[in-house]
Amino acid sequence: MADAHTAWTRATLPLCLLGILDGEEKSYGYALLGRLADAGLEGVKAATLYPALTRLEEESAVEIEWGAGEGGPGRKYYRITEEGRARLRRDRAAWGDFTRTVASLLGKGDDSGQHTRDTHGAGG
Q1: Exposure of 78 by Cβ count < 10 A (0-12 exposed, 13-18 middle, 19+ buried)?
Q2: SS3 2
Q3: Which one-letter DSSP state was computed for residue 120?
Q4: Pairing of strands 62-67, 75-80
Q5: Can you list the positions of beta strands (E) in the chain?
Q6: Which domains does the chain have, with CATH numbers?
Q7: What is the mean pLDDT of each run of 10 residues along the chain (124 residues)?
Q8: Backbone phi and psi for residue 75, each to the nearest 5 degrees, phi listed first
Q9: Rounded to whole angstroms, how far apart are CA atoms 25 and 20?
């Protein structure tokens, strides 16, 4: 089974990609990998990125544009659509709700590695 960080990255990759693209006019795959790595998601591989971008395109959240490559073949650029921006707004709100819920369930914890137990209403 994949570690938690990998699973969380895969689950949130579309949201992260929309967030990056919302702040840029357009971007291409390799640049998106760089932005993800700069943000701390350096484990994302092209084999994970491109299917996620394809799904976003199929869902009309991004559109593609072909442009001239720098001394090589053409480059596929991705741009967020209005539908993608609406999805980003919805998903940002849902993500905020979700993370608050999970944080409340996890509690504060401590550095000892021992779990604390909240006994409010617990039967013993």
Answers
A1: buried
A2: coil
A3: T
A4: antiparallel
A5: 27-28, 62-67, 75-80
A6: 4-94 (1.10.10.10)
A7: 80 96 94 96 94 98 90 90 98 95 85 47 46
A8: -120, 140
A9: 10
Tokens 């013993």 locate to 124
Measured in whole angstroms, the distance separating CA 19 from the mean position of its chain's CA atoms is 8
Task: Give the list of residues 6+ apart from residue 103 with CB closer than 8 angstroms, or none.
Answer: none
The whole model's pTM is what?
A: 0.80
**Residues 52, 95 contacting (CB under 8 angstroms):** no
Distance CA 73, CA 97 (A): 43
The rounded distance, in Å, linking the Cα atoms of 75 and 29 is 9
